[in-house]
Structure formats: structure tokens, C-alpha cells
Amino acid sequence: MRKKIASGWALLPSGVRKIIALVIGSTLIIVGLLLIILPGPFTMPLVIGGLVVLALEFTWAETLLIRVKHHGSKILPRTVFKRKK
């Protein structure tokens, strides 16, 4: 299934691929950022998912995704979810 989608994606013209990736990725990032203000779960996965979609076609998004992964690996879950006594 993945190969079929990848081959179909490669058949699209470059401009169309970039527009599709820009619309879907930007939408995911905007919804993720709105969920910071509005009550709702899954804020960071939407932002990271938007960066992954944008990184399919844009090198600037790929470098930003690498930086986010690097800084995200520094966060220890124990310190983030530490209970205060």
C-alpha cells in the first residue's frame, strides 16, 4: 500500500505536490497551535505531523524537523510529568 501511494505521489507534477504538502502541513500546524489556546489534546503530535508532511517537499521543513527531534530528545518524561508535593 505504501509503495502504491509513493508511486502515485511521484507521478504528480512538482508544483502540485508542493501545494498539496503546503496546504495539508500548514493546516495540521495551525490546528495544533490553536489547540494550545483552545482546550484539546494532541497539540504537539499535530505540529510534528505537519512538519513531517511539509518535509516531504521542502528542505527548510526537513531541517526544522531535525532540530525539533534533536531538542525533543533532550526532554526527559520524568521531569515533564513530575508531581509536585
SSE topology:
Elements: H1 2-11, H2 14-37, H3 43-55, H4 59-73, H5 77-80
Helix pairs in contact: 2-3, 3-4
Overview of this structure, please?
With 85 residues, the protein is mostly helical. The protein has one domain. It is built from 5 helices and no strands. The model has no long low-confidence stretch (mean pLDDT 85).
How would you briefly describe this protein structure?
The chain has 85 residues and is mainly alpha-helical. It has helices at residues 2-11, 14-37, 43-55, 59-73, 77-80.
Main attributes?
single chain, 85 residues, mainly alpha, 5 helices, 78% helix, elongated
Succession of helices and strands: HHHHH
Radius of gyration: 16 Å
Mean pLDDT figure: 85
Q: Which word captures the global form?
A: elongated
How large a portion of the residues is in β-strands, by DSSP E? under 5%
Structural class: mainly alpha
Please count the beta strands (DSSP E, at least 2 residues each): 0
Largest sheet: none
Q: Give the low-confidence spans.
A: none
Number of domains: 1
Tell me the number of helical segments per DSSP (H or I, 4 or more residues long): 5
Distance between the termini: 50 Å
Helix residue percentage: over 70%
